Amino acid sequence: MARTCFLSSTTLLLLLLFQYCSVYMAILTVGSVAAQTNISTDQSALLALKSHITIDAQNILTTNWSNSNSDICNWVGVTCGVHHLRVTALNLSYMGLMGTIPPHLGNLSFLVGLEFRNNSFGGTLPTELSHLRRLKFISFRFNEFKGTIPSWFGSLSKLRTLDLYGNQFSGSIPNAIFNLSALQVLNLRNNELSEIPNLIGSKDQVERLFVQGNALKGHIPIVVFNMSSLTILALAQNNLSGSLPDNICQHLPGIQLLNLVNNQFDGPLPHKLWQCAELLNLVLAFNNFNGSIPRTIGNLTKLTELDISNTTLTEISLVGNQLSGSLPADIGLGIPNLKWIVVGMNKLSGVIPNSISNASKLTYVDMTDNSFSGFIPNKLCALTNLEYLGLYQNNLTVDTSTPELNILSCFTNLRYLRVFILGRNPLNSPLPISFRNLSTSLQKLSLSEGKLKGSIPNEIGNLSSLIYLNLELNQLSGLIPISIGRLGSLQGLYLLGNKLQGHIPNELCQLTRLADLVLGSNQLSGFIPSCFGNLASNLRKLSLKSNLLTSTIPSTLWRLEQVWYFDLSSNILNGSLSQDIGKLKVLSYLDLSSNHLFGIIPSSIGDLLDLVTMSLAKNYLEGPIPSSFGSLKGLVHLNLSKNNLTEAIPKSLEALLNLKYLNLSFNKLQGEIPEGGPFTNFSALSFVSNKALCGAARLHVPPCKNNTLQPSSRKASSKRKVEVATEATLLPQSLWRRVSHLELLRATNGFNDSNLLGSGGFGSVYKGTLSDGIDVAVKIFDLQLEGAFKSFERECETLSNIRHRNLIKIISCCSQLDFKALVLNYMPNGSLEKWLYSQNSSFDILKRLNIMVDVALALEYLHHGYSVPIVHCDLKPSNILLDDDMVAHVADFGIAKLLGLGDSMTRTMTLATVGYMAPEYGMDGIVSTQGDVYSFGIVVMETFTKMKPTNEMFVEEMNLKQWVANSLLSEAIAEVVDANLLVAKEEDHDYVTKIDCLSSIMRLALACCAEPLDERINMQEVVATLKKIKIKFLKDVGRRVLLNRPRVQAL
């Protein structure tokens, strides 16, 4: 019988549930595998990127991105989405990475944000990045990408921000970018782009467009001004030209910042600028705009900063254009908040409107270098808040008909006035006695070339805060007031080109802060005050030329060791020149011509290695031209004409490759005129009217008689070189002072501990005083130490053969069987190390920078200025000694090495100091000049960070060099430099200048420490760069201190 089976309802339900779960688990398994596959794709793309990175300065990716760490969502710089577990953002900014971007990165298909700021990625961008269709944000700011900007950016339809600032992209901006409907910010600043496409404005969604600092040229396509969504348009620092459309604001209703500074725009300023109602910043300075300033500019009621004009209005700055016409008569009306009006360096004319007095909050008025005329309005004296008034180089005059209304008198009402510049105007006025009532805050007073008459009032001594006084090129007469000696803060005194008479008052010697003293082209007579030697600490420029001075040159003037400009020409000075003239080590300009000087020319002038111009013409000097002049490698102008010089022209002058002008005429010179170096460019005029010169026919002198046979063989030439080298080696030692062991015992009180200056690797150094009163440093070698004898010989030999103002000078060597000592110049200010780590030392940026320049010059001489390169091998702060004037001298040559001719390196078993020695020195014993360069870089970093390279904070991969490099990458240099060098931004007017200077110094230091060694710069490049940094720093600081000019941020 057939059997029928019935399942219960419960059993049936269980079967159905089991089948559903099986299907669901299968789906989950498939989904999990797919997700795993996709995250593996992302991992492969990231590892491909890692493999294309050639330098990982901070070892971040090296240690963090690895197969052993399989969870890529926890990798540094990687962000994953919550739902899909795919990479959605990649940020590798500020990691010090160098390399290229591989095409594999295009596989990160869920990527929304891509940011590689401040690295060194280079090459071109791979086309595969166009696959990243979800991207909304891209920043490759501050890298080294090259080539044209890829047009495939136009396929990234969701892109909102594209930031390529600070790369090397060139060519035209692709039209395709402006088809991106979501794009809001486009930053292409500081590249090498040359063209703006005509279709740039076809889409109006872009809100911020930055293309300043490129190579754009020609006119701005008109469609740019149709981009109605723009709030920021920055086209500064290009070569764009043409005029601005008068209706510029019609299609830019929301524009808030318009920056066109530093281009070639011309034509008038648009009269309808007032239609840009939302405008906050308008920067048009340094173009070629002309015409008048539109009065309607006052209608820009939201303008808060004006780098061409401003009205809410605190500043009007139209400096450096070609604007013409007159200032609006009502310029001072309706702008009660105006504080600055700066219209200098234009072509403005007419009178200065009286309405300017209505802007009662004005603190800064600069109208220099225009063509304003008429009387200087007395209404200016109503601006009682005025701190700066610059009217230099116009056609302004003063009303002298009523003395009490003389504008020069009414300025006594301006109690806050700090800078008053009125020079190069036909004032035709005497200096009023009421000047005594000028602001005691006045720091700069310049009335040069103003046709001023009468005498300098004695009351000028009441201006107690004065730093700069310029009365040059006027018609002032009478005496120099002795009251000027009360101006204790004075740094610059300029009285050149007047009719001043009488003696130079000794009271000027009280001006110990004086840097420039210019009294030339007057009728001063009598003696040069010997007390001028008191100005040695600060005086940089001394000009007494074209007077009636009759004394000898006081010996105290040779103490002015900071002077770079020294002009006593065209007086009646007599006597001979002292060898002490060689102490003026920084002298660049020397003119003693047209006097009654006699005697021989001091050979010590050859020590003035910075000399560029020298004239001793029209005197009664005799004897030979010193052969030491051959050391003046920077000399450009040399005039020794009209003297009684004899003997031959030194062959050493052939080494003066920069010499462009030479005049040896009207002397009694004889012998052959040199033919090498600069002499190939001089004509007969340089040698006319001498006794018996001979040489080339082109010089209009007879040919020389060939009385001697010239050695022609290589052997003879080699022999001559050996003889010269031997003479050079022996000569300095023959000039040493003889010092006995007994005298050194007496000088140091028996090597008493109270005389101990310090101890080093091979002995101790004592302070001593020799029998003639000379203070010395005596370095005693401990002969029980291995290597001490060799160290003595090496240091004695090295120091005896080198001579440079920034190397320690040897006085004598004392050598007995059981006693070895060096007698050296005593350095009263100790070592750089002492100063760096002294609690009470005042050690600002400039002092440290000067010391680094000194050390660099010393190393440059050792590496490039001696017959064979000398490697110091152990440069560090304790081996840098400072004299009375804080001039640095490199010392301790105990392990120095001489490289053979043609050799660039050698090897040693003697190690230098840990932390300062180059890597190749410590690992392989390789000694080269580049090792010194590395040590110098470390010393520079320590000098400005006050952080030793052996500090305990430096562990594992972090060291002083890396610490500084990281700070530069993150623009945080203020966090690593010595805190004593900077104060808070709001308290330090030079904060930005200092940061810029310190950043440049640290970049140079890192270049010195480059690895491998063949990528390091040399000391000649170091010296040149340091000097540029110093000059820029002095100019930037000096511009603020002396001129107090406004800092226009956009410029």
Describe the structure.
- With 1051 residues, the protein is an alpha/beta fold.
- Among the domains are: 160 residues, Ribonuclease Inhibitor (Leucine-rich repeat, LRR (right-handed beta-alpha superhelix)), CATH 3.80.10; 125 residues, Ribonuclease Inhibitor (Leucine-rich repeat, LRR (right-handed beta-alpha superhelix)), CATH 3.80.10.10; 98 residues, Phosphorylase Kinase, domain 1, CATH 3.30.200.20; 223 residues, Transferase(Phosphotransferase) domain 1 (Transferase(Phosphotransferase), domain 1), CATH 1.10.510.
- The protein is 19% helix and 21% strand.
- It has 13 helices and 61 strands.
- It has a 15-stranded parallel beta sheet with strand order 22-24-26-28-30-31-32-34-36-38-40-42-44-46-48, with no helix packed on it. An eleven-stranded mixed beta sheet has the order 2-3-5-7-9-11-13-15-17-19-21, with no helix packed on it.
- Strand 2 and strand 3 form a beta hairpin.
- It is globular, with a radius of gyration of 37 Å.
- The N and C termini lie far apart (109 Å).
Question: What brief labels describe this structure?
Answer:
globular; kinase; Leucine-rich repeat, LRR (right-handed beta-alpha superhelix); non-specific serine/threonine protein kinase; alpha/beta; eleven-stranded mixed β-sheet; glycoprotein; repeat; 61 strands; Phosphorylase Kinase, domain 1; 15-stranded parallel β-sheet
